[in-house]
Amino acid sequence: MSVKLNSFVLSDNIIKKMDIQLDKTRDIGIEHGFNLCKDNDNIIVKDECTGTTCEIKIMRECSDQEITPKVGDYHTHPRGTPEMSIMDMKRACLFDFKCIGATTDNSIKCFIRKKVKYPEKCSKEIDAFIKKRDILARDAEILRTNMFKENEIKVRQHNEKVIDSIRKIAIIKDKYFEGITIR
Prior knowledge:
With about 180 residues, the chain is α+β, with helices and mostly antiparallel strands. It contains four helices and eight strands; from the N terminus they run E-E-H-E-E-E-H-E-E-H-H-E. The strands form two sheets. A six-stranded mixed sheet has the order 4-3-5-6-7-8, with helices on both faces. A two-stranded antiparallel ribbon has the order 1-2.
């Protein structure tokens, strides 16, 4: 059954192609995906690609961008849920929507970029979060290598910062994206 995503429609044919990519991921254990491009009033599949067990590099533009501009993309997750990673969110800021399939429950979910007053802030907020996340990861490694009794308070404080950052990314996601379950 076709699904409407704002002014775009994912046809039955595109959803079947999403299922095929999901089957490939289940069989091989690596990510698969493609661009979703606008051709007149239709969405078409372009530029199929294969990634790794944890990442896929989908082209930033459709291969013939001047004829069929990119409006979104689809990729699969070999493990986990059909939720956006931090990098998925960063890339989703650039387009109208991003769709993700998950092998764990055979589900597909699309995230529509909300119409907000300053859409360019989406990437900036996520970039700031990524920098903070990288600092937290570095600090965690330092604390792990120096696990002494006096560091217990620092570890607790660090864990509180990590939990706070998880809450913040959820707020950013809800601010800029609306999730729609395809199945």
